[in-house]
Amino acid sequence: MSIQEKMKNAKECTWLNDYLTYEERETAKKIGQIAVAIQIQRKAMGYTQKSFAKKLGVSQTMVSRWETGDENFTIATLTKISSALGMEFNNLLDVRATAPLMVACPECKYTLPDID
């Protein structure tokens, strides 16, 4: 199932609004948007996580952490990733250049839609 299909079929949850501050939600949204952009572009270029990791000189686990939003990015890392993916740095941050954000709720295990 594609990322877009998973997002389309996801059930809604209010966990983000109930337990996180606005700043925490915005940070989670940006990290999620970047994670999705990396995964979509990597796959579009035909890289596996393993081959992309090798290209960047990192472990496959690190690529997985980037794509799941488990790793907080530095500007240097994002610059290196965007260059390797042949995309502009700003496109990693452009919400409309990627799929909508979905975050896994730790309480109910449903996937959460983008919440403004």
Can you walk through the features of this model?
- A hairpin with a 6-residue loop joins strand 1 (103-104) and strand 2.
- Strands 1-2 form a two-stranded antiparallel ribbon.
- The chain has 116 residues and is mainly alpha-helical.
- Helix 4 (49-56) crosses helix 5.
- The longest helix has 23 residues, at 22-44.
- The protein has 7 helices and 2 strands.
- It has a domain at 22-99: lambda repressor-like DNA-binding domains (434 Repressor (Amino-terminal Domain)), CATH 1.10.260.
Task: Describe, in short, the structure shown.
This protein has helices spanning 3-9, 15-19, 22-44, 49-56, 60-68, 75-84, 89-93, and strands at 103-104, 111-112.
Q: Could you name the key traits of this structure?
A:
single chain, 116 residues, 3% strand, 434 Repressor (Amino-terminal Domain), mainly alpha
Indicate the topology.
Layout: H1 3-9, H2 15-19, H3 22-44, H4 49-56, H5 60-68, H6 75-84, H7 89-93, E1 103-104, E2 111-112
Antiparallel strand pairs: 1-2
Helix pairs in contact: 4-5
The major pleated sheet works out as: 2 strands, antiparallel
Which strand-content bin applies to the residues?
under 5%
Radius of gyration: 14 Å
Q: Strand sequence of the main sheet, in spatial order?
A: 1-2
- Class based on secondary structure composition and strand pairing: mainly alpha
**Overall form:** elongated
Poorly predicted runs of 5 or more residues: 97-106, 108-116
Mean pLDDT: 75
Number of strands: 2
Can you write the helix and strand succession as a string?
Answer: HHHHHHHEE
CATH class of the domain at 22-99: Mainly Alpha
What's the CATH superfamily of the domain at 22-99, by name? lambda repressor-like DNA-binding domains
End-to-end separation: 26 Å
Helical proportion? 55-70%
CATH architecture of the domain at 22-99: Orthogonal Bundle
Please report the number of helical segments.
Answer: 7
